[in-house]
């Protein structure tokens, strides 16, 4: 694994898991996205499974959503919330919606609309991961750590462990100033002390 | 049943500390071994979910 922080690029030569295949197949249908949260830790070796993969998507028109919906269904995926495109679009404005391979609800892709500043930051500063011959886009590592620490504040140890894994793996190459700033903005200084 | 809640709290705290130590150990393993090596081991956990 090689991380070029200047180019915002990570080269990864891991053996592709079934979860990776699911993510690669789904993401190949999307024009713009950023993968966030647990899958990012798993992609880089965290030793755990997951039932869902979180994905941030920019705001899109109904027309664009319908086109994407068609591509998703033609590729063997389905929406777990509804089978109607219009209804899914309306739901998506307020809630996250999930997609999985047809008839197999686990794992599933949780679609989140880019709404708040954390989402916008993650999308704007995304990192390119070159995984064998495929490209995936993930949230910046500093935000990944800070966000997981914030979630860990609610008592979920799994999130603190995810943050610890990414921190230990990349600590020599992280932007420490940026990380400290983000941890402060997300009120997670105490959790950061726990994993350092 | 006589449950010592203080003792259980201590066990939970120690368990978490040990887990963090293992995560540090494993992250170091990932850093110092080829991607194919660590991912082969990790995929056993991930792929078992798909059986």
Number of DSSP E strands of chain B: 0
Helix count of chain A equals: 9
**Unreliable stretches of chain A:** none
Beta-strand residue percentage of chain B: under 5%
- Output the helix-strand order of chain B: HH
For the sheet with most strands of chain B, the description reads: none
Mean pLDDT of chain B: 91
Multimeric organization: heterodimer
Helix content of chain B: over 70%
Account of the 3D structure:
The complex is a heterodimer of chains A (196) and B (51). Chain A is of the alpha+beta class. Helix content of chain A is 46%, strand content 22%. Chain A has helices at 18-27, 38-43, 62-74, 85-94, 117-124, 141-152, 157-170, 176-185, 189-195, and strands at 2-4, 9-12, 34-36, 52-57, 77-79, 97-101, 104-113, 127-131, 134-138. In chain A, strands 3-4-7-6-5 form a 5-stranded mixed β-sheet, sandwiched between helices. In chain A, 39% of the residues are buried. The model of chain A has no long low-confidence stretch (mean pLDDT 97). Chain B is mostly helical. The N and C termini of chain B lie far apart (40 Å). Chain B has 2 helices and no strands. Chain B has helices spanning 5-32, 35-48. Classes of the chains: A alpha+beta (196), B mainly alpha (51).
Concise summary:
With 196 residues, chain A is α+β, with helices and mostly antiparallel strands. Chain A has helices at 18-27, 38-43, 62-74, 85-94, 117-124, 141-152, 157-170, 176-185, 189-195; strands at 2-4, 9-12, 34-36, 52-57, 77-79, 97-101, 104-113, 127-131, 134-138.
Name the descriptors.
heterodimer, A: 196 residues, five-stranded mixed beta sheet, 9 helices, B: 51 residues
Write the layout of secondary structure elements.
The complex is a heterodimer of chains A (196) and B (51).
Chain A: E1 2-4, E2 9-12, H1 18-27, E3 34-36, H2 38-43, E4 52-57, H3 62-74, E5 77-79, H4 85-94, E6 97-101, E7 104-113, H5 117-124, E8 127-131, E9 134-138, H6 141-152, H7 157-170, H8 176-185, H9 189-195
Parallel strand pairs in A: 2-8, 4-7
Antiparallel strand pairs in A: 1-2, 3-4, 5-6, 6-7, 8-9
Helix pairs in contact in A: 6-7, 6-8
Chain B: H1 5-32, H2 35-48
């Amino acid at each position: 694994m090689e991380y070029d922080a200047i180019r915002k690029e990570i080269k990864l030569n891991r053996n592709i898991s079934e979860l990776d295949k699911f993510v690669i197949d789904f993401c190949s249908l999307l024009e713009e996205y950023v993968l966030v949260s647990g899958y990012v830790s798993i992609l880089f070796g965290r030793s755990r499974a997951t039932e869902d993969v979180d994905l941030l998507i920019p705001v899109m028109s109904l027309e664009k959503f319908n086109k994407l919906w068609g591509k998703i269904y033609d590729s063997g995926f389905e929406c777990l919330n509804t089978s109607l495109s219009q209804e899914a679009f309306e739901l998506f404005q307020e809630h996250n919606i999930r997609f999985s391979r047809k008839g197999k609800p686990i794992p599933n892709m949780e679609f989140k609309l880019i709404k708040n500043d954390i989402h916008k930051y993650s999308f704007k500063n995304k990192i390119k991961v070159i995984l064998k011959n495929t490209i995936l886009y993930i949230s910046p590592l500093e935000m990944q750590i800070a966000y997981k620490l914030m979630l860990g504040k609610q008592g979920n140890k799994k999130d603190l462990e995810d943050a610890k894994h990414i921190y230990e793996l990349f600590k020599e190459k992280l932007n420490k100033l940026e990380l400290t700033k983000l941890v402060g903005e997300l009120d997670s200084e105490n959790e950061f002390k726990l994993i350092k | 049943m006589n449950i010592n809640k203080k003792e259980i709290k201590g066990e939970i705290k120690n368990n978490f500390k040990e887990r963090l130590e293992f995560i540090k150990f494993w992250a170091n393993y990932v850093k110092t071994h080829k991607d194919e090596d660590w991912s082969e081991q990790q995929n056993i956990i991930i792929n078992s979910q798909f059986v």
